[in-house]
C-alpha cells in the first residue's frame, strides 16, 4: 500500500510549523499501515525579501529533525506560491501513480478554499483532510476575501 501526504506550505512560519507538526503526528499514527509514504511538500518562495529558502525545503528539514523512516520518500514542489498552483502540481504528481490513500494537510481555517481548489482542479478526488489548528487573529476573515478569487486563480493555472 502506498500513501501520499500532501503538505501545503504557508509563508507564516508558526502556521507552517503547526501544519508540519500535524502531518508528522498523523503519519506516526498511520506509518505501519503503508509499505511506502510519499510526502509531497508543496511551496516555493512567496517573498524573497523575507526568505531565500523554499517552504518545501523548510518542511523537509523540519520533518527530518523528527527522524526519518526508510519507507518515506520526499517529493518537493519548489514552484508553487499559492494554493491553486499547489494543486496543479499535485495533479501532475498523482497522474499514473496508484495511491491507496491521499491525505492533504493544511490549516482548519484554510480548508474550505483548499478543498474548492482540489475539487475543481482534480475532480472526483478522494482526498482525506488532516487539519492543523493554529491561525492568526484575522485568518478566517482573510480567507473569506481569498475565496472570492478562487476561480480567477484556477483560470490562471489552467492556461
Can you walk through the features of this model?
- The protein has helices at about 15-30, 55-65, 85-95, 110-120, 140-145, 150-155; strands spanning about 1-10, 35-40, 70-75, 100-105, 130.
- With about 160 residues, it is an alpha/beta fold.
- The chain has one domain (about 1-155): 3-Layer(aba) Sandwich (Rossmann fold).
- It has a 5-stranded parallel sheet.
- Helix 1 (about 15-30) packs across helix 2 and helix 3 crosses helix 4.
- The protein is globular and about 40 Å long.
- The model has no long low-confidence stretch (mean pLDDT about 95).
In short:
With 159 residues, the chain is of the alpha/beta class.
Features:
Rossmann fold; globular; 159 residues; 6 helices; alpha/beta
